[in-house]
Design brief:
It is a single chain. By secondary structure, the chain is mainly alpha-helical. The chain has a domain of 72 residues. Helices cover 65% and strands 0% of the residues. It has seven helices and no strands. The chain is elongated and about 95 Å long. The N and C termini lie far apart (98 Å). The model has no long low-confidence stretch (mean pLDDT 79).
Length: 136
């Protein structure tokens, strides 16, 4: 087996470990070799749903999920999916490095009312001392 296909299988196993138990057991059931007809049918339907993602119920999330299911039965698909996953991760890290908080620097805390109103922020930032004068 190709090293990319092995890496893809390892990636899927790692992701399965992060799923909630109920969903993980359903995916494990679906990944059994005896379920290839169900898996193949579900993969085709998910890919078609991803293609027609402009419709209200369907979404683009269905496309990679369908391809991942089909990769269990179409061995030549695994290396391509692993390359795509590596490319996506590389570009996601680059995007997060430019625009989002990274693991080394925490993101800003949730802005409060003083952060949203510049006039209020400037009033709170400078303490004001009031001098009392006697009127007598």
């Amino acid at each position: 087996m190709d090293e990319l296909a092995i890496a893809w299988d390892a990636r899927i196993e790692a992701l399965l470990g992060r799923l909630p138990p109920r969903i993980g057991s359903a995916v494990a059931w679906l990944r059994k070799p005896s379920r290839h007809l169900v898996r193949f049918g579900a993969g085709i339907l998910l890919v078609l749903g991803g293609i027609f993602s402009i419709l209200p119920v369907l979404g683009i999330w269905m496309l990679p999920l369908g391809l991942a299911l089909l990769a269990e039965d179409v061995p030549g698909l695994k290396p391509h999916l692993e390359r795509s996953a590596r490319w996506s991760e590389r570009h996601w890290r680059r995007f997060r490095g430019r625009f989002g908080p990274g693991p080394s620097r925490p993101g800003p805390s949730r802005p409060g009312p003083a952060d949203r109103d510049p006039a209020r922020r400037s009033r709170e930032a400078v303490p004001v001392r009031v001098r009392r004068t006697s009127d007598a």
